[in-house]
Design goal:
This protein is of the alpha+beta class. It has four helices and 14 strands. Pfam families: Exo_endo_phos.
Length: 200
């Protein structure tokens, strides 16, 4: 899979993956991508399967991790990038299915800390496991309203044998900094799959 990712997405500056399923048995060297910084990871503990995050940033970009914006109980990575004299905060989240209010409260807290740090240039991406095509779902919408964020993806990103859903999202505090968003083709030919979401 690493070789496929390297071939398909070499031209992108930032690659953020949810449900990485990585743990301490996977070394950084085993998942490094050529021309990218060492991966930024958020693994689950050895007793928990699934989940996890990994983010790659091109090695010509100035980047640092912001653990002060991350909360232990949720799967999130915050990175600060300096791009054309602007500081941009990039957050990546994985919210497990059927997460309760406690999880969403911690997501809210993490976003609040990030926006207090840099409200002008924030990009948040990830798998939020709340279908935005279902108008009765309100947790993400509440966050968008509370923090004046715009959700950029408007078509399905997750497909099963008998359903489609929009759960992989890109949100921003400044739509003028994003010129284009789309849903890309899937990386695999499995029956159940996520499509990548892409922004420029």
């Amino acid at each position: 899979m690493i070789d496929l990712i390297a071939a398909e997405y070499e031209e992108f500056d930032i690659l953020a993956f949810t449900e990485s399923w990585l743990n301490s048995s996977h070394t950084d060297d085993s998942i490094n991508l050529l021309n990218f910084h060492s991966p930024f990871r958020r693994d689950r503990g050895p007793q928990k399967l699934g989940g996890g995050l990994v983010v790659y940033v091109k090695n010509n970009l100035n980047v640092r991790r912001r653990p002060d914006l991350e909360i232990d109980e949720i799967e999130a990575i915050w990175l600060e990038l300096k791009v054309q004299n602007k500081n941009i905060l990039c957050g990546t989240f994985y919210i497990p299915p059927n997460s309760g209010h406690e999880t969403w409260d911690k997501v809210e807290t993490s976003l609040d800390m990030a926006l207090n740090d840099n409200k002008d240039n924030i990009i948040v991406s990830g798998d939020f496991n709340e279908n935005q095509l279902n108008i009765s779902n309100s947790k993400v919408k509440a966050l968008l309203n509370q923090f004046s964020l715009t959700q950029m993806i408007d078509e399905p990103t997750h497909f099963t044998e008998n359903s489609t859903s929009l759960i992989d999202l890109i949100m921003t505090s400044n739509v003028n900094e994003i010129s284009y968003c789309c849903v890309g083709p899937p990386l695999t030919d499995q029956i159940r799959y996520h499509c990548p979401v892409i922004d420029f």
